[in-house]
Amino acid sequence: PGLEALKKLANIRKGAFLGGRDIAFKLAPRLNAPGRIDDPDLTLKLLLERDPLRAKVYAEKIEALNRRRREIADGIMKDALERTRALYGERPRTGIVIDGEGYHPGVLGIIASRLADRFGVPAIVLGYEEGIAIGSGRRAGAFNIHGALLDCAEYLIGFGGHEAAVGVRLEPSRVDAFREAFAARSESLGTAPSPPLDVDIEVGGAFELPTVEELGALEPLGEANVSPIFALPAIVEEAKPVGEGGAHLKLRLKVGRRYISGFAANYSEAPPEPGASIRAVGELGRNTFYGRDQLEVSIERLISDP
Length: 306
Description:
Elements: H1 2-9, H2 20-37, H3 41-48, H4 52-88, E1 96-99, H5 108-119, E2 123-129, E3 132-138, H6 145-150, E4 158-161, E5 165-170, H7 175-185, E6 201-202, H8 212-216, E7 229-242, E8 248-255, E9 258-264, E10 277-289, E11 292-304
């Protein structure tokens, strides 16, 4: 009953296919919200509750906490972006370390992940608690952020994590020195070429664009079963910058005789003109729009055809 109530609040239709993206972007953030900013027992109560009416009450409390979590994260993200630009410029070329008074400890990992995605460099975000700087870090690309901290350990009280995510503790007086050491450890990132992107499936010729149902047969996708990379020859119907400062690109594409949407995160080039021929390389996923499932390509590379 608890998950069904939460799915309804997350606009997941009853009986609809539940994929990895639904879990990662719709359910997991809600289940995590109480532990981030309030009491994690609320999530446990929701999952154990057998009575639908009480489950609905728990789900509504979690939904309210998730809205509050987004508000907190959005406020901190705005400040973190200003600090990032002040310290590193518009396009950081090294790993970044951002600190701020009043940063809520429950959302530091979210902010680090957003910064890493936006700028394409590893990011560590620090808040202050009981006189200690405490933070979370996220990698960008294949960068081993835990390995980088091994080289910066002299500046830290302690740290832990893995290649993709870390937690750190240090004295406030050592933040600036740690920032410099972390930047030096990752200084080659800004000049390194983009890593090669292995294409699994070339659409065209004998292979047509899959349907939403065919794509669902590959689930569950994740670390041990990664989503295949498609290369799609397409005609641009529409392309417009979206998000804060137009940081991302939203597209409508014609692939063969079908139309799909496309999304390119942190797209810094000029948008392609309507009618342009492109090759969109990335993961195909399902996007539910007004109750209808549609294909969407998350674009990793956008290449103009001559």
